[in-house]
Design goal:
The chain is mainly α and 116 residues long. The chain has 5 helices and no strands.
Length: 116
C-alpha cells in the first residue's frame, strides 16, 4: 500500500462508524472487482488495504466487533495468499466476490444509520 502512514493518519481521524463504513466500501469494491478477470492487481491491493483498515480499527472497536474484524482479517489474509492462482479461475473470483459482499454487509450492520 502506497503512503500507508498518510492513509493511516487520515483514516484514524474519522469516528469508528465512519471507519467501518470505509472498510465496508473497500470490501464492496473487492466484490465488484473480483468478478472481472482483468482486476487481479486491484483486488490484491484492496485485500491488503482492507487488512490494514481492520488493523487500525479493531483496537478501538467493542470486543465482539473486534473479534469479528480479526476473523475477517484472517480470511482476507487467506484470500491474499490464494489470489495469485484464484484470480485465473472464474469460480474462485465469484466466490471471493460473494464473500466480500457478505463481509461488507456484515460490517455495515455495525454502522448506525445516521453514519451511513
Amino acid at each position: 500500500m502506497r503512503n500507508r502512514e498518510r492513509i493511516q493518519a487520515r483514516y484514524l481521524r474519522d469516528a469508528l462508524p465512519v471507519r467501518l463504513a470505509g472498510l465496508a466500501a473497500d470490501l464492496g469494491r473487492v466484490a465488484s472487482s473480483a468478478r472481472h478477470a482483468t482486476g487481479g492487481a486491484a483486488v490484491a491491493a484492496m485485500l491488503e488495504e482492507s487488512q490494514y483498515l481492520i488493523e487500525w480499527t479493531a483496537a478501538e472497536a467493542p470486543v465482539e466487533l473486534a473479534g469479528e474484524l480479526v476473523d475477517l482479517q484472517v480470511m482476507l489474509a487467506l484470500w491474499r495468499r490464494a489470489w495469485p492462482e484464484a484470480q485465473h479461475n472464474a469460480l474462485q473470483r465469484s466466490i471471493l466476490a460473494v464473500q466480500a459482499k457478505q463481509w461488507a454487509d456484515q460490517i455495515m450492520r455495525h454502522v448506525p444509520a445516521d453514519a451511513r
